[in-house]
Fold these 3 entries.
Entry 1:
Amino acid sequence: MATLDQCRAALDRLARNMSGADGQVRSAAALDRSLSCRLTDPDVTFLGRLAHGTIEDVTSVPGPPPYRAEIRLAMSGDDLIALVDGELDFARAWGRGRVRLEAGVRDLLRLRKLL
């Protein structure tokens, strides 16, 4: 099981990867939306903002998110790390129910370029 520090490091890597992207990925990441990433283990939610092509202002709270973010992810800590490291395909993980993504229809259409 992934530790809280490992999960935070994975989110930091994801933010760096997004800020260094170009083309369609860069334009997809240019949304300005609140973001939550609920990790079922270690039972924590990371909250932040998808803005300026990266993830900003990341904080963590124990348990479920205290408010409904505009873009919501849920998965295990191990799956987060595997996704960021390129060891787990998002579409397959989503299709098998290992990863949940909730957002408005327009946001989902833009985010699919990231995934």
Entry 2:
Amino acid sequence: MSRTPPHPTREQIELPLVLDCLSDPIRLAIVYQLAQQEPVSSELRCGDFNGLSGKSNLTYHFARLRDCGLMQTRVAGTNRFVRLRREDLEARFPGLLDAVLNSAAKDADRLQLVAECDVVKAD
């Protein structure tokens, strides 16, 4: 039995589901943090986001992000690593992710996107 959760194919990613998923502040914060860490590391552990919410609530949000195609999860031992599916999103909806992230960056303080996460900051 595979422990890797199912992911939609590139062709199965739908714009209404992506936009609905990004409308939640916690999910937007997760995507924003993943994008901020891309220059340092393409993936982060699920536990790196504990500062955003409780574990069970984060599990729900990670599942929603995975189900709509925004994020990919990789299981390694007891850890789950997540990364943005930037290439797939860019192929399906050119410029969408960058537009969302640029807009979110402008409102990061108001949206509280720069949360007290355990995420390692780039030097």
Entry 3:
Amino acid sequence: MSESKGVLQGFKEFLMRGNVIELAVAVVVGAAFTNIVNAVVKGVINPIVGALGSQNLDNYKACLTTCHTDRKTGAFTDGIYVLWGSVLSSALTFLITAAVVYFLMILPMNKWKERQAARKSVDNTPLAPTEVELLTEIRDALIAQRTASPTVPSQNSGTIGTQKTQD
């Protein structure tokens, strides 16, 4: 995650990944945004599509066999037909919901996790010895050098060991 990914690549990975927590967040937030998304599809997308034909995507149908329509309502009375407009409307609703969940929930959460991971790696580095610890080590080394016999360093001493002097 240290390398920078494109936003669309991250969105694609989010859609293709089966992470349970992200899926649960998507379901909850998606349910909360259903009315907003439906309003966007009905108020913005349908009029754009309506420039080509009917504003209601449910009216877009294709007949697979000979179909007869009711002259008053325009509905198919018999035959086999596919309601591809309803499928298109549902697909648009899904994509808008997924985009809202990703850009408002998942992307900020991933950035927060990256910052936490970067901060944690800095916290795991060993601390430099304090002045008191260094002075204690120096004192122990000098005492050992003066007495010319190895002494047991104090509990606070670290890497400086005892030294013997030559007579």
